[in-house]
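Worked example

This section walks through a single chain of length 129. The input is the sequence exactly as stored; nothing has been trimmed or padded.
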Amino acid sequence: MKFLSFIFLFIISTSSYAAGGGGGSSPFIPLNPPIVVNIMDGERIRHMQVIIEIKMVDPDNASKMDLHKGPVRHELILLLSSQDAGTISSSLGKEQLRKDALEAVNKVLTELVGEPIVEALYFTNFIIQ
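Given that input, the structure is written out below as tokens.
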């Protein structure tokens, strides 16, 4: 009986934590929906889809990020669509693109909010077809 009580309490506390009842707000924000752009591969047009997750300097700034998602996505679309498939096929190319994307996002947010509020940017999915 004690074992069943323990299991029940464990399930309740886990669901409470998952619902936001335990750990505070996360500094990570997914930038949904995925960004899909056309890129050039020599003479051929290819499609690139990326899913991006942004790490905020302060999790309390998530509402600012949400408010300005349109301009941020716009800037990322311009940056991503200007890439060459050959360059970003390597891990070094992807890493440079990640750094450029972080810089572009913070530039837009500095103009709109007055300070850079993004600490890091991660590609959690990166597909070129």
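What to look for: The two ends are 56 Å apart (CA to CA).
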